[in-house]
Design goal:
With 311 residues, this protein is of the alpha/beta class. It has 3 domains: 69 residues, Arc Repressor Mutant, subunit A; 108 residues, D-Maltodextrin-Binding Protein, domain 2, CATH 3.40.190.10; 104 residues, D-Maltodextrin-Binding Protein, domain 2, CATH 3.40.190.290. 41% of the residues lie in helices and 21% in strands. The strands form 4 sheets. A 5-stranded mixed β-sheet has the order 4-3-5-12-6, sandwiched between helices. Strands 10-7-11 form a 3-stranded antiparallel β-sheet, with helices on one face. Helix 1 packs across helix 2 and helix 1 packs across helix 3.
Length: 311
């Protein structure tokens, strides 16, 4: 019989990569986790983790791979049970694990969370804010119920609930020489400094490729893994930046600056998507949340006819 405590500790060690990291995450002594793992291996009659020297991440044995699969199945069945109980209770309570890139923490989601919470006050949220590659990892590990991503995703185990191609714009500060342009080409931006994304975000490769095709070596004023910082320094007058159409409510306060369409044959739009793990049964709270979120996204896409300018 596999102890539920040992199984939980095992899953956290695998998720975090080490007993020490799991100890910090669980607020449990590392020695207690080690004892539980030893008892687990004793009950199974086989080692589940390879013992290695150094600080590298833990590696699963063949038995450990099977146990991890079982751990995920138990988690999915637990969530299914919770969903059925929530259905009996009329969605009076529940929890949603959601992921999104940083830019949506300002432009889109705060007002939606607030509206949803007013309708379903018993539902709570855990929200992971990270780059799209990390969010997909968490989704496939079933640590998220759903996530937003930016960029092309070539992962078979994802189901796309909503997808939209967002055109690229140049965010031009107030008073900049390019401010009054109706559209811009990449060559128009070549002589000005840019804020750009770093390699931890999928969009960075797309931006680098389009500049390379235009034979432009950018004058980088700031490189970051933060969409918000990249956009905000541009809006404050430090530089230009390439960005997507803001996904925001009509009442949202726009940034200072102008979003000018980037019209260039070497530029392609960026994909924005809402995804879930294919084949997974979501709790009722999560499925209700996603149903209303998808409806809101479809409404925004239907009425999108351009980007407001502000000065």
């Amino acid at each position: 019989m596999v102890s539920s405590t040992a199984l939980r500790y095992f899953g956290e060690v695998v998720r975090t990569g080490s007993i020490r990291a799991a100890s910090e995450s669980l607020y449990v002594a590392a020695s207690a986790i080690s004892r539980q793992l030893a008892m687990l291996e004793d009950s199974l009659g086989a080692p589940v983790l390879e013992r290695r020297q150094g600080r590298g991440k833990v590696k699963l044995t063949a038995a450990g791979e099977l146990l991890m699969r079982y751990h995920k199945q138990v988690g999915n069945e637990t969530r299914r049970l919770q969903s059925e109980i929530e259905a009996l209770q009329g969605l009076k309570r529940g929890h949603v694990n959601f992921g999104m890139p940083e830019s949506l923490a300002r432009d889109l989601m705060p007002s939606f969370f607030a509206r949803f919470a007013r309708r379903y006050p018993g539902i709570s949220f855990s929200v992971q804010v990270a780059g799209s590659p990390r969010l997909v990892e968490l989704l496939l590990a079933d640590e998220l119920d759903a996530t937003f991503t930016f960029g092309d995703i070539a992962v078979r185990d994802l189901s796309i609930m909503h997808s939209r191609l967002l055109p690229l714009y140049v965010l031009v500060p107030k008073g900049h020489p390019l401010e009054g342009a109706k559209s811009l080409r990449l060559s128009d931006c070549a002589d000005f400094e840019l804020s750009v994304l770093d390699s931890t975000l999928w969009a960075q490769q797309q931006f680098e490729e389009m500049l390379a095709r235009a034979n432009i070596r950018p004058r980088v004023a700031l490189k970051t893994n933060s969409y918000e910082l990249m956009r905000n320094v541009a809006a404050e007058g430090m530089c230009l930046t390439f960005t997507t159409e803001p996904l925001e409510d009509p009442q949202a306060k726009p940034r200072t600056g102008s979003y000018i369409p980037l019209k260039d044959p070497r530029v392609r739009p960026q994909r924005f998507a809402l995804s879930v793990h294919k084949g997974r049964t979501l709790p009722l709270a999560a499925s209700t949340f996603l149903s209303e979120l998808t409806a809101m996204l479809e409404e925004l896409a239907g009425r999108s006819g351009g980007v407001r300018r502000s000065g």
